[in-house]
Amino acid sequence: MTMTKIATRADGQGQPRARRPLSDEALITSMVACAAVVLFVLAALLVPNFYQPLNVLNLVTNNWPVISLGIGVTFLLVSGNFDLSVGGIVALSGVLAVWFAQSAEGGNALSTGWGMPTWLAMGCALVGALAIGALNALFVVRLRIPSIIVTLGTMMLARGIAQVITQGSQRNTNLPADFGFLGNLSVIGNSVKFPVVVMAVLLLVAIFIERRTVFGRLTFWTGANPVAARLSGIDRARHVTLLYLLSAGVAGIVGILLASEFKSGFSNRGLLMEFDALVIALLGGVAIAGGFGSVIGMFFGAIILAIVTSAATGLVLSPDWQFILKALAVFLAIVAQSWALARRNK
């Protein structure tokens, strides 16, 4: 039996004070952060100029879409659900934003749109993204179909709609002059653009919700023990619905900002991003069965994936090897997490 350690320092009244043990979640997050530091040091030793400040900044700025998507995916995983539709929503929302903004008097089908103002086009595209999230919630919550099956289906549905609108190509002409403003707006010098700031704000808000709000606690309780949560009076259906809308909304924002950055709507944009978002969540210590994990851990998981990918590129490894490296990283992360928790709970 593990005994609680007693601090040798007394409190203000001369009574011994119990030292709070590190929680399992904090332990795993610390392990992930340490792993990121170790990997960075190894990469800096093996890859020339890897340690340069600009390269360190690029590890985050170049991966802002996946980190943003990881927020919604993490919340849903913690609640015991999957969301593999985010990549398709990225493509759909970007294509819709471009289609709605294109002039109604184009020279051909791919340059003809709805002629909406940019702000309205982007708002309507976000509504389209939320519609996919609502569809996810309908099938998962009301019809009780496993979330991994539902979100795989809606991922293909969203991307299929995007392909129909773009006719298998892309829409990149006859756009308003201000369509590319948000995606290319520089905030800090030329290295940090507005989408990166959006990612940082989303990350901070997610951490606050997770740590300081009832909504965040309900997410953990729903995933840890759904039966107990229901018996406690928690409206699990409503909560999971809100989580799917949150995830779809974030994916919609990512898709719109990417469309603005490249000034085009491309049906293959966001391809495999859903799996990268899942990978960084698992690397960050999120339990695939639900009830365990954190947004901070997901962020460090994203850093680990970025280091592995960037180092592989610096070592001139074939892109095909990057898939193997990702698989090994996920496998080792899950094994390390299971080993650490089993050893801790002996």
Describe the overall structure.
This protein has 346 residues and is mainly alpha-helical. It has a single domain, classed as ABC transporter involved in vitamin B12 uptake, BtuC (Orthogonal Bundle). The chain contains 14 helices and six strands. The strands form three sheets. The protein has a two-stranded antiparallel ribbon. It is globular and about 70 Å long. The termini are close together.
The CATH class assignment is: Mainly Alpha
What ranges have pLDDT less than 50 throughout 5 or more consecutive residues? 1-12
Distance between the termini: 8 Å
What is the typical, i.e. mean, pLDDT? 88
**Named CATH architecture:** Orthogonal Bundle
Summarize the main sheet: 2 strands, antiparallel
Order of helical and strand elements: EEHHHHHHEHEEHHHHEHHH
Oligomer: single chain
User: Based on DSSP secondary structure assignment, what is the total number of beta strands?
Assistant: 6
Helix share of residues? 55-70%
Structural class: mainly alpha
- Total separate domains: 1
Shape: globular
CATH fold assignment: ABC transporter involved in vitamin B12 uptake, BtuC
Report strand %: under 5%
Strand order within the widest beta sheet? 1-2
Radius of gyration: 22 Å
Key phrases:
single chain; mainly alpha; ABC transporter involved in vitamin B12 uptake, BtuC; two-stranded antiparallel sheet; 14 helices; 5% strand; globular; disordered N terminus
